[in-house]
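Can't attach files on this board, so I'm pasting raw text. These are the components:
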Amino acid sequence: MKTGFWQVTFAILRKDMLAEIRSRELLSVMGLFALLSVLIFSFALEMDREARETAISGVIWVTVAFASIIGLNRSMSSEREQGSFDALLLAPVDRSALFLGKFLGNFVVVLLVGLILLPLGTLLYNITLITPWVLVILVLGIFGISTTGTLLAAMTAQTRARDALLSIAMLPIVLPVLLASVRATTSIISGDPTDLWISWPQILLVMDVIYMVLCFFTFGFIIEE
Amino acid sequence: MSDTPAVLSIRELVKIYDFIPVLRQLDLDVAQGDCVALLGPNGSGKSTLLRLIAGLIKPSSGTIEIGGWQMPKEAAAVRAQIGMVSHQSLLYGNLTARENLVFFARLYDVPKNERDDRIAALLEQVGLTKRAESLVRTFSRGMQQRLSIARALLHSPHVLLFDEPYSGLDQDAAAMLDDIIRHTHQDGQTMMISTHLLERAQQVATRVMILNRGRVVLDKQAVAIAEHQLASVYAQAIADKIPSDAPQPRIETSVEPAS
Amino acid sequence: MAQAKPKDFAQAPTPAPNLLRILTLVTVIGVVIALVFALNIAGTDIEQGEVQRIFYVHMPAFFGAFLAFGATVLGGIMYLWKRDPKWDRLAVAGVEVGFAFAMINLITGSIWARPIWNTWWTWDPRLTSEAIMVLTYAAYMMLRAGIDNMDTRRRFASVYGILAFATVLLTLFIIRFREDTIHPTVVGNSPQNAQGTFAASDGVVTALMVGLVIWGLLVPVTLMWYRIRLENMLDWVNRKKMEVLSA
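---
Top answer:
Structure tokens for the assembled complex are below.
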């Protein structure tokens, strides 16, 4: 009787992508925020080359984290607006498939923002950020942020404070992921030998798996009534 | 109609929110082809009852059986047989009417080869064929509500639930909705409609049920109530039928009022 | 879940059971003993002087917090499984007691750092991660306060309480993550740039062990027990209120 797990996951992903391509609501807001944030940081921290090298990864990741909070709030409130989340719950589908579908949508959008940020940072800070390993870290870090982010956004969307509460609830929890991502990025762009930083992507991978498993299985508790 | 087997049967249903009982030991059978109008004042438990049947919330105790499937245990099977139209449209504004229906068809696993025909037929039925490719957020409230019915009928549910479908609709839109409801009912669709509008309820329903304080206080075939009497029947039902076995306020635990 | 009966089992408040009274007494005596060990029996540190004694409270307090936050995880898992509010009461008790102990840990650390590191606060990785841990649990309490429906509140809090434990583990293991911390480690080798390390002589170890049992175990357990009883009483009062209102 249940609709297939992957069919549901991809139906939701397709629906979110279609709506996003049509309205560009998320990408435009998040992209603009990312641009502003990087600009403001580069003005605020008047830096020489060395300082820039250490600061840029922090700037990138803080921007990614805040941009994803903006996106997550938007993505969840679009589900709540017309009560359409209820429509998802009415369907004979696995709750975790709903989570995975929403997660993938958020992940793709935040990853796109991250991919915009790299050339932007390269341009404004005059440091080459576009390397294969930085991309790997970007994917791993954003994966971790999006798992907990999707779960917590579904949670805070049902509370009184909503948007405000998401940042408060989410930032401390994703901090381990942010920390590992920042360290890895700094190390990679300053050209350290591989064995000095290779443990970071490994740690990130482990955290991603743990967060994914935790969120995947607790999501059902968040949305039932 | 009472000899047809019950498609929906509810036994001793209780729902408690934060220690407040919203539904108290509710029993209910709905036969195939019934159109039940659920009436009652705010807070009487109408919405809660419909949301329980739809599986959006869990009962505190009691059983709900639909088409032979038990509610919390075989939730997916039950959900596949329920369609719900609420006062919110439950649609995505940034998608077109057709895209919305395609998305929900995927969620309900409507077979691919039937999908397009089914969607076309439903759009025709709710009179939105011409607007199939427009974004839903450009729709009027009434059009959204009609599309919402198409969404709910997509998977040919056994039972169709309407939760305050008329709210926010003007006269014309409501009349149009009535037409669709009546036609759908003539096709043999079982449904339950919760509403405040007594006269509309009487026009479409075959059975009238009045809830008050979480209990059924009146349950009659619509034909058994004369057309102009429903208002007085309703007033009487919610006024003096406070259930006798409801918990009485406990005098002995009363606290001295602070003075 | 199918056989769910109304789950509002707040019980009428009872006088404290004997075991709790005994535990309270033992805890009070234990606190005195721990203080005697810390202030009197353990020798004065040659380099740091008297201020080093704060360590006998400082480190056990973290373990008290760890225990309490661990209880929150247990309470959360058990609540999601059994849906019995008593597990959620354990989780709340864990968060509040843990929060208090984490604050004790931060404050005592700060007092110690003033003479030894020459500053009240520094953005050291471990200090930072602990500050974030405290904020996470502050967020937990805000989350609870932001939800009106009791069942929803309990469910969300259970999930968040489980997730929040990530920051506790981060604080515990950050010395392995970030080599640049100046915070000394007592168990195992201190990081190279740790400032304020001291030798673990016999007296230090004994006083620390006593401190761990008292501050890391007895005091948090006793406090949590009282807090659970208080939460039960609150639920019971709430229920009575609702019964009167809805009757």
